[in-house]
Amino acid sequence: MTEINNRDRAVFEAGIKLGALYHQFVGTPINTDMLNGLERIIEESIGVQPFVRSISVIIDTNMVKEKQNPEFGYCELEGRMLHVSLQVLYKNIIVQAEMFYDKEKDYPLMSVKKIEEM
Amino acid sequence: MTEINNRDRAVFEAGIKLGALYHQFVGTPINTDMLNGLERIIEESIGVQPFVRSISVIIDTNMVKEKQNPEFGYCELEGRMLHVSLQVLYKNIIVQAEMFYDKEKDYPLMSVKKIEEM
Amino acid sequence: MTEINNRDRAVFEAGIKLGALYHQFVGTPINTDMLNGLERIIEESIGVQPFVRSISVIIDTNMVKEKQNPEFGYCELEGRMLHVSLQVLYKNIIVQAEMFYDKEKDYPLMSVKKIEEM
Amino acid sequence: MTEINNRDRAVFEAGIKLGALYHQFVGTPINTDMLNGLERIIEESIGVQPFVRSISVIIDTNMVKEKQNPEFGYCELEGRMLHVSLQVLYKNIIVQAEMFYDKEKDYPLMSVKKIEEM
Fold first, then answer.
1. Which residues are registered as beta bridge partners of D111?
2. Which residues does chain B have within 8 Å of residue A38's beta carbon, measured at their own beta carbons?
3. Taking Cα atoms as reference points, which of A86, A85, A77, A79 lies closest to residue A35?
4. Closest partner residue to C29 among D27, D49, D73, by Cβ?
5. Distance of CA C85 to the CA centre of its chain
6. Does an H or E element contain A102, and which?
7. Burial B100-112 (b: 16+ CB within 10 A, else e)
8. pLDDT tens per residue across span A16-75
């Protein structure tokens, strides 16, 4: 057993934010016209939480087009439509984390990309 | 037992939309700066669904201010912060429905306000 | 314009409950072992809300099996996996409503099935 | 900048799970009778996800009693009602993490409690 340090806390916070984003916004009714606005709001919503340094959200327009119900003209936001890039700053530690759709595994993978000391 | 008519279907759709809005967006991390953007996105998201003629969403800024955590500067969207006014059009029937916070009952009440034939 | 009556209110409540159920529980991580338990909890959760007389929830085991990620052994609850049958009682009016997956439209349809006066 | 290691990955996964749990289940309509069942289902739902070794969820009965609407006899699950204890196992690393309500900060705090190598 070892002491919990700032790096652990920073990485933990990055995980919290991606898990929260996913389960808050997946299921939102969408069409292609509103993707830009929704991307910005998700960024703002996650960005107001503690330790978020920056965040970028992209929703895959082609997937939305394909999933839009032909009769009703909309679909729901799915995890695999999301590409999220997130920076957490905790004390002097910056963590870069990401969520993107892994086509081979058919799974929205979340991962830590980079850890830096300021 | 009686036949289900267009009025029933219109009223039913209005109920669906308000229930959906509530449980999709309550819990969203917010601060006062992003309320305007979030209101518009909720309107768009509910508006892409079938039979929605118009929708207006207002989030109570004062409640958000009061609920914002002093240390972390944000809170979560709660049902009682929402004032929603919705028009559903099904065939020739317009239903006006509403969600607003009933302070006395301490409850976010949803109700049908008006039903019109076009 | 016409007066809002008990039938309208009953039908409206049925819509609210189905919309709420959908957007609260869709996205829940599941595997086939826990479907029974989750069905009961969704029934209880919707059942504690006003005017719900009875509710039955069935999650499509075969769809879950097909969607379970082969590497990780789970998937998420989707709207099309849900078959819900709901009775609302408002004053003297009973409304029977339903959500089921319409394969042809590839859409989880919600509809009013029956309205009765007690 | 340093290499991402198993400890980072384990801690990151713990964060994901707590963020996911929170935003999936907060908002669920509840009364005191169904808390036990809901606790078990949340445990199962988070437990089917990768790398979860064990999880224990307790919902604060007294808070639920206080928040239950007197007229309607139910309330919604809130973050501050949740006490969650979670173990993640990634490769040879066990992370113990927790969510509990910090009364002083009026905030549902998530934290890493312990990191062990097996």
1. D98
2. 41, 44-45
3. A77
4. D49
5. 6
6. strand A93-102
7. bbeeeeebbebbb
8. 999 999 999 999 999 999 999 999 999 999 999 999 999 999 999 999 999 999 999 999
